[in-house]
Protein: Galactose oxidase
Organism: Linum tenue
Amino acid sequence: MQLHTDTWCSSGGLTVDGNLISTGGFQGGANTVRHLDNCPKSVWREYPSALAAPRWYSTQAQLADGRMIVIGGRAAQSFEYIPQQEGTSNTKPFFFDFLQQTTDPDENNLYPFVFLSPDKNVFVFANNRSVLLNPNTNAVVKEFPVLPGGHRNYPASGMAVLLPLEVKTEDPNEVPDAEVLVCGGSAHIDSYTLASKNMFYEALQDCGRLKITRPNPNWRRELMPTSRVMGDMVIIGKVLIAGSNTNNGYIYDAMYPTELRVEKFSPPYFSPSRADKKPKIVDGGCPKTMTYGQQVTIKIELNEKKVFLKNFKVTMYVPAFTTHGVAMNQRLVKLLVKDAVNVGEGRYDVTCMAPPSSAVAPEGYFMLSVVHNMLPTEAVWVQLK
């Protein structure tokens, strides 16, 4: 599939129908919106003037109403919404003073960390500060305390994740707790500049946790086993690790050559020694589509004679668009499990409730798993709409 615009350091995400929308990039690709449909014979459709501002190192996120927002980028202290009608163009972005305020001489606020909060606002973290942005009024409605320790966004390049959201009630107006975890980065404002002169600072070893849905939250500090910069923070499962390059271009005879191999990491709970205790969703045992608040029964096979409801979880995971330690739109929702019934011959019907609202889980495709005693099934695709 051929591309005509440069996607270097771009952003992206999936639509409700599982189609890819890619935004921004380098030089002639910076104002581009690209569409790739979820079908075998799809080809790229590119619109080089669709965005009002050039978006290089920007972040893209899906909103509760299905729109997509693009925030920041190099020399772009603004945000805008991807045109909902393909082929049309934005005429003007929304100035975002917060990004201007968080720009250092070495920037340190590119690829901002952006998460849809379950109260429908947008959490934006840049450098060492964070706010809630209302996407309906385009106004900042809350600023959180500064995260101490240093600088967290590119090129300081820490990482962040929205921790799993747990649904505990069927009430669609109930806002579940949402907690953000930010780790790593640099304590020094000029790390990037000095690195080009072969002067290297140690990366940050700390993390900060913030419950963004609480009235007056404060950061809670933790330490990682080691310092990290430009790591990837993912909600664990099987992980593909691809690429690595400390060079300007593709160079294979340097001390640290350009790396093109792909590795797969499997966590301990995928050990073959535990395979006989893993649950399995039977063929056709899960609906392919769900609606909000729907009661859903999932049929599984499980080698257990007696089970307890408290040991079951049903999770839905959004696949992320990942680059530079930023996993855009990554989200895992723990559903409300109502029952688990033994229907004979090692089979169980697990009944749960679909997410209560699009603020908890925006419309689109999810990977659904049933978890028993910390062992997950292989995921199946479901569409929430």
About this structure: The radius of gyration is 22 Å. Residues 337 and 352 are 4 Å apart (CA to CA). The chain has two helices and 31 strands. The mean pLDDT is 95.
